[in-house]
Amino acid sequence: MSIFPQKLLTLPKENELEISLFGPGYGESIVLHIPQIGWGIIDSCLAKTKQTSISPPLEYLSGLLSPNFPKLAFVILTHPHEDHYRGLDHVLREYPGGTERVCRYDGEGIRELKTYIVQQKVGGREVLPGLVEVFNAIKDAVKSGAQLRRLSEMTEVLHLRNAEIEKYGTTDIRMIALSPSAASIQKYVEMLFEAFPQPGNPLLPMKDESHNLISVALLLKLGDLQIVLGSDVESGLNNNTGWRGIIYNRDCPDLWANLVKVAHHGSENGFNSITWEKHHQKIKPIAIMTPFVKGNIILPKKQDIENFEKVS
Amino acid sequence: MEAQTGMIFTSPTGSSYLPIVEDFNSIIRRPYLTKVPQLTDMIPESLNKSCSLETEAVGEVPEKVESLYRETIREWWIGRVLKVYPEERYFKAHLNDLKGNESIAEFNIDTALEDSSDVEYYLFPGAEFAFFVVTRHGRGSPETISRLEFTSPYIWKEEDNKKVKELYRELFPDDTPLED
Predict the structure, then answer these.
(1) Which one of B102, B119, B170, B171 makes the best mutation probe of the A interface by having the most chain A beta carbons within 10 Å?
(2) Structural domains in chain A (count)
């Protein structure tokens, strides 16, 4: 019995693109149905019910697809923040159909990130709770046959040429990662090394927002549709990082969009005006976002929403 | 019941408070960062003399030292730092009380930490502290004050590197082990 109302659990048609965004207050997850590709999940979160916590993307697909579960075409972890990875291990382990491809940033610094988590544990502090389980679930999925794809700027998540879509015709379907840039990765690795303790010195955690440096923004192109999914990419420290790093990359495709999943829960530091000029150069895009509610940190703020209303 | 700092912990509702207070004491690590009351001028002259470094022989120590002040904890919370705003000199924290009530508060950094150079060691998202509201009984009228006590940061030891290697192997068994 799904927690979602039955009227929401209507299967899209084969030729329909469906984007479902889940934001229970703390956390974000996107479930996509792409014609000729199938189902995919980007990030995960947990939502509290009266009895327990559930993973909305898993719950949604379980209610929608039961009892014939197709293989998930892709599962993507955009970056190591709790509100984006919580429950992803459940998705990978419990989705009955299995997963064809797992994508995440897995380049330079991942071993250092793991070391950092372990060092903090030795010092009695739990940072990034549950991430070890997610990493191990990804590893197990790969052992079970899933393909691991490492994401960074201009890498492909999927590319289907000459897809035949009913009533639409023949088109290419492509999803690429727009970030993280090499400069962002380098900065991230430096920050991890700075957090490594030396004997006699205090063990300090790195700033939580540092993990946004390796956040993966995605561009989905399907015929004459373009969708930008901004993850938690921030505006950028310079022209080589964050959104600035994306738009000043010579290889970056046009970023006009029909729909934009607003980056970083609509926060001020996720908004880059030049990027948004590019988003609405052809058409005013639909902007969707998830809230972030933790303590008295509530995103987006009223002012943030007003800013997005002007450009979307 | 008298605790090691000379404070008296009592509960407005009775003694059931005490085990938790004792437990709480055990999780607070030294050094306390908040201002400790200056007792020098309140210590009896006889005791002062007996403790003087210039006196070789320790004088007669009274069998029972009368407390010259005591503090009653009215309320306390376990706090967790959410975000630090160093330029504005304040931080936001999440507070939990004994009944499980949760709240959010903002604290002035300069009031919370005696030494501003301690900021990077103690004030970071996730740092834990205790926040007390106490009534101090001493000379004159009782005084109600608040106080923050931060847990000390963990000091890294040479042998911890070995623990990291072991734990890394345990948590990520398929990875290449960390090198020396």
Answers:
(1) B171
(2) 1
In tens, the pLDDT along A42-92 reads 999 999 887 889 999 999 999 999 999 999 999 999 999 999 999 999 999
- Going by their DSSP bridges, the two strands A169-177 and A218-222 should be labelled as antiparallel
Instruction: Sort out which chain A residues have CB atoms less than 8 A from B90's CB and list them.
Output: none
Enumerate the residues of chain B whose CB falls inside 8 A of the CB of residue A117.
171
- Cβ contacts (< 8 Å) between B151 and chain A: which residues? none
Range of the domain at A231: 8-311
Write the CB contacts of A133 (distance below 8 Å, at least 6 apart in sequence): A89
Do the domain assignments include residue A3? no
CATH number, domain with residue A156: 3.60.15
- Any idea where the domains of chain B sit in the sequence? 15-171
The pair of three-digit structure tokens given for residue A111, joined into one six-digit string = 């071993």
Between B104, B158, B172, which is nearest A295 by CB? Answer: B104
The sign of the dihedral angle between the CA atoms of A177, A178, A183, A188 is: negative
